[in-house]
Every structure is written in C-alpha cells, then in structure tokens.
Amino acid sequence: MSTFRSVGAARALLALTALACTPLAWADARISPIAPLPAYSRECGACHIAYPPALLGAASWQRVMADLGRHFGADASLDAATTREVTDWLVAHAASGRRAAGAPPPERITHSAWFVREHDELSASVWQRPSVRSAANCAACHPQAEQGDFNEHRVRVPR
Fold first, then answer.
1. Crossing angle of the two packed helices 80-92 and 58-66, in degrees rounded to 10
2. Which residue range is the domain that position 27 belongs to?
3. Each residue of 59-90: pLDDT tens digit?
4. Is residue 159 part of a domain?
5. For the chain, is the Cβ count within 10 Å smaller at the N or the C terminus?
C-alpha cells in the first residue's frame, strides 16, 4: 500500500512539475492559452497585439466588434463574414466570472476592474513614457504578451 501511495505521490509531483512548465503557470491561470484564429491575428494584430480573448467578457467583445468603423478613433471595418468569424471566436473564448463582470461591460481592457487592480501600483506617469505610450501597449512591460503570457515574474517596466 505504501508503494501505491509513493507512485501516486510521484505521479502528482510529475503532473505539478509539468504544469509549472506550461503557460498555465502564469500569474493569472484564468487566462488559458488558445490557438489564435488566423483572421483575428491578421486583422487585429496588424495594428496592436492580438489580445487574448479571455481579457474581456463576451458582452465586451460584442460591443467592440459591433462598431469597428469607429474602433477607438480608427476605422477597423472588416467584411461581414470576417467580422462574424472573429466575433464568434472572441465570444467563444471570452472571459467569464469576475474578469467578465462589469456594468456596462468595458470596451477597453484597460478600463476593466481586474486590469486597474493588477496595475494599481503603477503611477500615471508610467503610461506616458515614450517607451510605453499607453496602458494598452502590453508588450512594453510584458515581453511575452504576443503569446498571451502576462506572468508578473517576467514584467519589465521600461524607464
């Protein structure tokens, strides 16, 4: 019986070790890595990082995608089929629970309660630095942002 427990403990340790070596070991494990939709990466990633869908709730993504003609001051219009494909994918992989909470749902990731809470230690001047430019420029401080990795142990706030 003790051998069974040892084998079980060894398997559990191996599973935890494997988990610690994967992107699921991020500071916020609720953001699970998913394969990007090529249309999303191509269209949205042309102007900014292709934000992981789990950073906003479904209602937020629907609002963002409903007004692409005035997408934060730019015309990001897409044809109807691509808009539908991207919207469906974003909604299917959107945040749930606390990350999706908010009334009305935020259209900007940087206005969501969880984002504000996670970045509350940064002064407003950080966002104005030429190396950062904006709170929406995740890659300025999160070198693995393009891969959806926002692990706080890899954050490098530029001077």
1. 160
2. 2-154
3. 999 999 999 999 999 999 999 999 999 999 99
4. no
5. N
